[in-house]
């Protein structure tokens, strides 16, 4: 499915996301005092830092000149108060990189601290849906290469996502997508397994759609999504799920719409790492992604999606109807 032109970026991204997913799985298996609170009062864990260290290390080795814009930085790890977190990050990262030290790990994490737009950069969310991760639910490891403002290659690891939502016995997928070429799903459990091409659902009538939105009601207006769903004639209940796993389930046809709608009065601006990989996985699988007004997501104001309001991803054919319903609702 994929051309040779992206062979190196795909393989570095896929290997790095697999390693980070393995680290996250071991931390999630015995999560206890590994959660700290950032200045904005959001949670961060040993696994967020460990994942960012491993992936930034791999990107720096393979593509030393390509900046990385990632969510975390090492400042809080270097405080006395969080020394116990740093100690655990070192132990987890050493399981993959035996020569790693506290100092090299902090350097790798901060390799992800490019803070402005470049014509070519990586963007990384080492754990997206940290609240879901801590709860033992869905989370994602989201990595995308952005070229000329558009995501071109993505690897999206979803360690708790079953093959099929109706059969929750098997766990863990990684999605790889290349702009204009397609998207594939690989099981995380077997690095040698062949991937399966994925495609969005062929839904022509909005009333047949299923939609997903955030698990945490503070992140998206649940009531608005429900009312717009009602206007579209949707009767299926929403799928509430943490993280960019929502983009993955639209991409492979378990859902048709992902609504991320700002809550009334919210002045929150979406971050690029929460959407770059997911957007590409959906688009490469045949779907469409825009903001709630139908405008393309603009990654040239990195690290923020400052020109956009909300996000809507769909299986494709119904996109204009969904955007129209949102406009009618706002009126
Ligand atoms: N107020 C507000 N509004 C919108 N979005 C916010 C807000 N606060 C945080 N965030 C970002 O939400 C990211 C997690 O999104 P999710 O889709 O996983 O949310 S949910 O858990 O399903 O509710 C989360 O990503 P992670 O920090 O990587 O988990 C944040 O970047
Ligand atoms: Mg995130
Ligand atoms: Mg995160
Ligand atoms: Mg966070």
UniProtKB/TrEMBL annotation:
Organism: Longimonas halophila
Coiled coil segments of this chain: none
EC code(s) of this entry: 3.1.3.7
GO molecular function, one term: metal ion binding
Catalytic activity: adenosine 2',5'-bisphosphate + H2O = AMP + phosphate; 3'-phosphoadenylyl sulfate + H2O = adenosine 5'-phosphosulfate + phosphate; adenosine 3',5'-bisphosphate + H2O = AMP + phosphate
BP-aspect Gene Ontology terms: phosphatidylinositol phosphate biosynthetic process; sulfate assimilation
The keyword Transmembrane belongs to this UniProt entry's keyword annotation: no
Residues the entry annotates as binding Mg(2+): 71, 125, 127-128, 274
Cofactor(s) needed by this chain: Mg(2+)
Keywords, alphabetical: Hydrolase, Magnesium, Metal-binding
Gene3D superfamilies: 3.40.190.80, Fructose-1,6-Bisphosphatase, subunit A, domain 1
PANTHER family documented for this protein: 3'(2'),5'-BISPHOSPHATE NUCLEOTIDASE, PHOSPHATASE
Name of one Pfam family that matches: Inositol_P
Name of the protein in question: 3'(2'),5'-bisphosphate nucleotidase
Family membership noted in the UniProt record: Belongs to the inositol monophosphatase superfamily.
